[in-house]
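A protein record in our archive is deliberately plain, so that people and models can read it alike. The record that follows is passed on verbatim for readers who wish to inspect the format.
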Amino acid sequence: MARKGGKDRGVLQRKGRKGWWVRLYANGRERWFRCDTKSQAKALYGRLKADIREGKFFPEKFTASKEITLRAWISRCLEGSTNRGIENERRYGRRWSLLLGSRLLTQITVDDLRRIQAKMRAKLKADELAQRQWSDATINRHFGYLRRVLNLAIKDGHLARNPVSGVKFLPEASTTRFLSDDELTRLKNVMTPEHWQLVAFAIETGLRREEQFLLKWTQVDLENGVLTLPLPKGGRTRHVPLSEGAKTILRTLPSILTSGWVFPSLITKGLPLDSRNFMRRVYEPALRKAGIEGVCWHTLRHTAASRRIMAGVDLVSLKMFLGHRNIDTTMRYSHLSPDHLRQAVNKGSLSTDVPFIPSAPNLDNGMSKIASRSLNRDQNRDQTPMKKSYCSDVIDFMVRPAGIEPATLSLEG
């Protein structure tokens, strides 16, 4: 960039106006472009000068609005976000604003993101246990959020390519924790009947925590046994069938006559029960008292799925019941199915062609029938004499008890 008197030519501040300005002369006309920072103005100035030299300068295409920092773009995305996980998005946005907030979107490279990923994996907690501050799953959630934000920038024309596409996500250990019958019994014994109803309802319906605690009576159809969730996590209306146990719980709730919420707050009238307060004051102490570890509220949803898959429910029906958008999410429970893949591997197996070998007392008669069927099948196929009996091959593979002569086989039908 040309410099005059130790200052960047064409990059300056205008009196009485905020920000930094880029001044250019194109086709005999003076043009001004406003930027937020000096570094942003420098980058824009160099880019526009290059376009002028190459004859590609078009003011309507190359404006300062196309150049935006990551911090400003994240703030703009959060303002227009209507996602249910907005709190997580704010947390991820603050993290990326600290790491790369001052960078222009076009200045973020794949190498920068890979170095940040390595630093996040290596960073430890400030304690003597030397534990990692972020797990691999948490790091993946951060990069997944950045990928979505930059994809929006591509749609708006601020970016040509998403640099996150060149970053390999970390492998995550997939574990599905669910409560056994013994753990459910212990948990029920340490909870009051009113509190246990919320836990039992979660297992009966498989609802997520916020879906259950924000449930309204207008979404409940006891006559047809269906819950209607207008905007769940997947963003599409979902209908959840009610089991007989779930309908029994709903009929016994006193809130059906006193509140619009299925589980209303006991302190503040007109508000639902605070899920975090219930977990902190009731659910988590009950787990500790029952001696159950490694369990959160979402474990109840896993329990609902696991109990149904072990009872013989197919994966497609379970997918519809849980409201998964992708069958791959439901496949995590496939190993619990007693019939999953077992019937599939038996279809086409050679066991359907292997003859049945009877017990020793009926060996003569049984093997005679097998040899006869084999002979007739071979004769009908090619009408050629059979050179060797199929039953002789079977006998060779049999374990003969010591001191017992093998039975004589007959090929007569």
The radius of gyration is 35 Å.
